[in-house]
Structures are given as structure tokens and as C-alpha cells.
Design brief:
With 295 residues, the protein is α/β, with parallel strands linked by helices. The chain is 42% helix and 16% strand. The protein has an eight-stranded parallel beta barrel. A two-stranded antiparallel sheet has the order 8-9. Strand 5, helix 7 and strand 6 form a beta-alpha-beta unit. Helix 2 runs parallel beside helix 13. The longest helix is centred in the middle third of the chain and has 17 residues. The two termini are 23 Å apart.
């Protein structure tokens, strides 16, 4: 171990035993480059974005499976133009053997492009079971959502968890990324108090340029006050550098209590940097990252 390098506590190291990653349909070449840095069997989520079509999403899911990882295609409710489109997407995944794990999200459009207002509506179609889905991921928002009231978010989370249980899926919750551990832990306790006991994957940004991180944070309503930025390890007055989630993960590891917070893992938003993120995780797990005593 290098002098001055901090080590993850045992309970914290367990948070990274089964981390997951995220890619877009356009990231297949980047995944090929990163393959040797990613542990076999890693869950890799594949986004459902505007500008990507069925073929692109299908190709990405096939690539994830071919390279020895677990594909988790996203289903974006408000981007689906029809029930037939949902059926066709799931049918294609099933044909490729990539339909067992999906992540169902409402999606970005303010106005639905078809019959589904939210992810709960997709869960209730019965099409997931018909096409062999076994595991369903849903979203969580520790810092809220800029366009959705908190009460609506809580109702949606508990309703979706109930449907997942009633339909006998395995499932988990993947949270929006953030820079501050405090609201994450508060949200976890509130989630468990509401009877939602699904495993939670805490969303964490992979190492990236500060300016880029702030751009995504603004888009998704993530808090970036000066105090939050300082705790995370960057300055709002110097946007030229690159920063990783070292301090965030160390703080989460120190304060994580399985009795209060339940089963927790980590999900990395890679922002196109699959190899960089995977190599960073490997170095961090082996104690080769920077020391991260939160100020």
C-alpha cells in the first residue's frame, strides 16, 4: 500500500463488491476498450435515450452479454409511442437472451410520447413477465426531482416496490447521483421506514471533469452549493480540474449501517468514461486512490 493512502473499511469495501455501471447505446466501442478492467458478471445498465433506436439498444445489450457482463436495458415509459413498441422492444431483448434484467424509468419528456405516463404504468402492463423479465430496477431520488413533488415521488416508489413484490420479481432501486452523503442516508432511512426493503444502488458519478459534472447536476437538480462541493472535493471557482467520488465513498462507508440503511451497493454513472471509471474503481478498491478524509 502506498504511504498516505486511506483504506476502505470492511463494511465499505462490501459496498463495491457488486457495483454496477451505466452506458449508452453509443458506448459499445468504449465497452470493448474497458472489458478487461470490469469484473465478469458486472451489471451494466443501458440507457434509453432520444436519438437511439431499437437496433442500437439491442446491439448494446448483446455486446454486454457477449463480453461476459449482465445487460440491464432501460425502458423509458414516456419515450414509448405505443404498447406495440414496448412489446417489440421486450420481444427483441427476449430473442437475444437479454431480457431477464430491466430498469424501468419514467423518462425525460415532459409530455408522454404514447400511453405511459410513468414507469408504474409499464410495470402494470403484464408485458415484462410475458417476455421473461425476472429482475426490475426502479429509480430513487434522495435529493428530490426538479419536476416532481416529493409526495408524488414517495408514492411512486412505494407503489412500484409493491408491484414488484406482488408480481414476484427480484428488484432494486438505483438512485440519482449526488455529491452529498447526508441526504442519501436520510433518504435511505425514510425509504426503509416506508416499508421499501429492496436493495438500493447508490448513484455515484465516475471520475470526470468538474464542469461536466456540474452540467449534469444542473440538468438533474442535484445540489451543488459551495459547502457540498467542498465536501465532495472540488471548488465552484475552479472548473478546469477532474474529480472522483473518493470522499463521497469513504464518507458513505464510514456512516453506512446495514441495520438502518438495509442492503446498499454502488452504481456508477460513467458519462461515457467506461474504461476510466472501471480503472478508477479497481485502483480505489486496492487502496491506490487518494486519501479522502472529509473536511
Amino acid at each position: 500500500m502506498k504511504p498516505g493512502v486511506s483504506v476502505m473499511p470492511a463494511v465499505g469495501a462490501a459496498l463495491l463488491d457488486d457495483f454496477s455501471l451505466e452506458m449508452t447505446g453509443k458506448d459499445v466501442a468504449r465497452l470493448e476498450e474497458a472489458r478487461d478492467s470490469i469484473p465478469p458478471g458486472t451489471r451494466i445498465n443501458i440507457t434509453f435515450l432520444a436519438g437511439e433506436d431499437l437496433g442500437m439498444r439491442r446491439t448494446a445489450a448483446r455486446a454486454v452479454k457477449r463480453l461476459g457482463f449482465v445487460p440491464v436495458p432501460h425502458v423509458s415509459a414516456r419515450r414509448l409511442p405505443s404498447r406495440d413498441a414496448l412489446d417489440a422492444f421486450l420481444s427483441a431483448l427476449a430473442e437475444d437472451g437479454t431480457a431477464e434484467n430491466v430498469f424501468v424509468v419514467g423518462g425525460d419528456p415532459a409530455r408522454p410520447e404514447g400511453p405511459y405516463d410513468d414507469s408504474l404504468a409499464v410495470l402494470r402492463t403484464g408485458l415484462l413477465q410475458r417476455h421473461g423479465v425476472r429482475h426490475v430496477g426502479i429509480s430513487g431520488y434522495p435529493e428530490g426531482h426538479p419536476a416532481i413533488a416529493d409526495g408524488t415521488l414517495w408514492s411512486a416508489l412505494t407503489d412500484k416496490a409493491a408491484v414488484i413484490g406482488a408480481q414476484r420479481f427480484d428488484g432494486d432501486v438505483i438512485t440519482q447521483f449526488g455529491f452529498d452523503v447526508e441526504p442519501v442516508l436520510t433518504w435511505l432511512e425514510a425509504t426503509r421506514a416506508r416499508g421499501v426493503h429492496l436493495p438500493v444502488r447508490i448513484g455515484v458519478p465516475g471520475p470526470a471533469g468538474v464542469r461536466r459534472l456540474l452540467g449534469y447536476a444542473t440538468r438533474f437538480g442535484v445540489a451543488t452549493s459551495a459547502s457540498v462541493a467542498r465536501k465532495y472535493g472540488f471548488s465552484l471557482t475552479n472548473l478546469m480540474g477532474t474529480t472522483g467520488p473518493d470522499r463521497f465513498l469513504h464518507t458513505l462507508a464510514r456512516r453506512y449501517d446495514p441495520e438502518r440503511h438495509g442492503t446498499v451497493k454502488v452504481h456508477f454513472y460513467t458519462f461515457g468514461g467506461l474504461r476510466h471509471t472501471a480503472e478508477w474503481i479497481a485502483a480505489f478498491r486496492h487502496g491506490e486512490g487518494t486519501s479522502n478524509d472529509t473536511p
